[in-house]
Write a structure and sequence with these properties.
Blueprint lengths: L7 H14 L6 H18 L2 E7 L5 H9 L15 E6 L4 E5 L6 E4 L3 H6 L4 E6 L7 E5 L7 H10 L5 E7 L6 H7 L4 H4 L2 E6 L4 H5 L1 H11 L6 E4 L2 H8 L7 H6 L2 H41 L7 H9 L7 H19 L5 H20 L11 H15 L6 H20 L2 H9 L2
Parallel strand pairs: 1-6, 1-7, 2-5, 7-8, 8-9
Antiparallel strand pairs: 2-6, 3-4, 3-5
Helix pairs in contact: 1-2, 1-12, 2-12, 13-17, 14-15, 14-17, 15-16, 15-17, 16-17
């Protein structure tokens, strides 16, 4: 099974950079870094966009329906003229009508006909389908012999990360298709598939070996792979009760196509992740370090200064660094606001502890032997909530003590690097 790489840690680091540089004086180099950091964060936070392209009647909408796991897009001869349709994740089914130059309109449920009547530039359909958390499907308008249609397709391809060109198996990969696809940027072509559709039809099925041999020879650098698919058979296989017919799903090409799509999307995500990591390591994090060296550290109030300094062990531990930065920001607010209500301070502490409790539950950032630490953060959340109902200076001292203990917990967990040294005795 193909799993998408996690991006949470890199996104948090990028957000930390953006927060730390938000109030710096305007400077061309800083503005450029901030713009690139924001771009990296957005790419890693959003789904990978898979575009379905092809001439009219090539079966691209049927293929998009199959991968979405829902019969949403109209297929075959129909009178409903649609622009670009995006199928993406949403908690509840909804249809968004969009224009390039004005505010969108939202309908509840799946309402393509109503949306098309608004003559939008694009339509987005939201579905509660887990797979759509990682990929979004872009069904582009069918191309033809008209130059305007081809130009629209080329313009819309700038919004996709990967593409699937659907070619009708009855006359696969015609010169008109080749001509249009040759205008697509090489980066997109290298991350795209050529899908031979209608392979369930006897004439196409009988000639498939010969067609595959020809297209694999001709594809060159135009596509990453050529994949045949009998979409109606694949849909039928997955609809079988009480469970899908996996043998049929595999024999008709559904399994291969799904794996190829997930692979190109995963590889694109890995490329984005590598670019973000390189930028963080070469520029963004060193710049943050320079800010720390150039500027005096915030001075906390005397009552919390000692516990804070005691909670600063020299570890390479990203979650500990983020935690200390978060609680330092609370102390700074307390120092600057002499009239800050104790309940506000306690509420801020509770919110931060709760955020980090959720982060720790995701795993992967502390030593596996410290699996008890998330429970400590959960208990601390409850204690801080109870302290908000008490009065006097006692609750504030208790809150500082709780934060210090949690800092000690994260420091004890250590970084993976330190854990390795400890185990080897170095």
């Amino acid at each position: 099974m193909i799993e998408f790489p996690g991006t949470e840690q890199e996104v948090r680091q990028l957000e930390r950079f953006l927060t730390a540089t938000e109030k710096l004086p305007s400077d061309e180099s800083v503005d450029d870094m901030r713009a690139r950091a924001l771009s990296h964060a957005e790419r890693l936070s959003n789904a990978i966009n898979i575009g379905f392209v092809g001439e009219f009647g090539a079966g691209k909408s049927s293929l998009a329906n199959m991968l979405a796991g829902a019969d949403i897009l109209p297929t075959g001869p129909q009178h409903l003229i649609l622009p670009l349709v995006i199928v993406a994740y949403a908690d509840e089914p909804e249809t968004t009508v969009g224009w390039w130059d004005k505010e969108p309109k939202v309908y509840s449920g799946i309402a393509l006909e109503k949306a098309a009547a608004d003559k939008p530039d694009f339509i987005s359909v939201g579905l509660n389908t887990p797979a759509l958390k990682e990929i979004s499907l872009f069904d582009l308008p069918g191309t033809g012999s008209l130059d305007d249609a081809s130009k629209t397709t080329l313009d819309l391809l700038q919004y996709v990360d990967c593409a699937i060109w659907c070619t009708n198996g009855t006359s696969a990969w015609r010169e008109s298709e080749r001509h249009l696809w040759s205008k697509v940027p090489p980066e997109l072509r290298a991350n795209s598939l050529l899908a031979i559709t209608h392979t369930d039809l006897p004439p196409v099925h009988d000639a498939l070996d010969r067609v595959l041999a020809r297209l694999n020879k001709e594809k060159g650098d135009m596509f990453r792979a050529v994949v045949p698919i009998g979409t109606p058979v694949a849909v039928k296989a997955m609809a079988q009760e009480p469970e899908p017919d996996f043998a049929l799903w595999q024999s008709c090409g559904g399994q291969n196509l799904a794996e190829q799509v997930l692979q190109i999307a995963s590889d694109r995500r890995l490329g984005d992740l590598k670019a973000a990591r390189d930028a963080l390591e070469r520029e963004f994090l060193p710049f943050l370090d320079s800010l720390t060296l150039d500027q005096p550290a915030p001075v906390a109030s005397p009552s919390v200064q000692a516990p804070l300094e005691a909670a600063l062990p020299p570890l390479e531990n990203p979650i500990l660094e983020d935690w200390l930065a978060a609680i330092a920001s609370i102390y700074e607010d307390l120092r600057e606001s002499s009239d800050m209500e104790p309940s506000s301070f306690l509420s801020s502490c509770q919110e931060i502890v709760e955020d980090f409790a959720e982060r720790l539950e995701q795993g992967g950032e502390i030593d596996p032997s410290a699996d008890w630490i998330p429970a400590e953060f959960e208990k601390a959340t409850d204690l801080l909530l109870l302290l908000q109902f008490e009065t006097g200076a006692g609750p504030l001292r208790d809150a500082v003590s709780i934060l210090t203990q949690l800092s000690d917990c994260l420091a004890w967990a250590g970084s993976r690097a330190e854990s390795a040294h400890t185990k080897t005795g170095t």
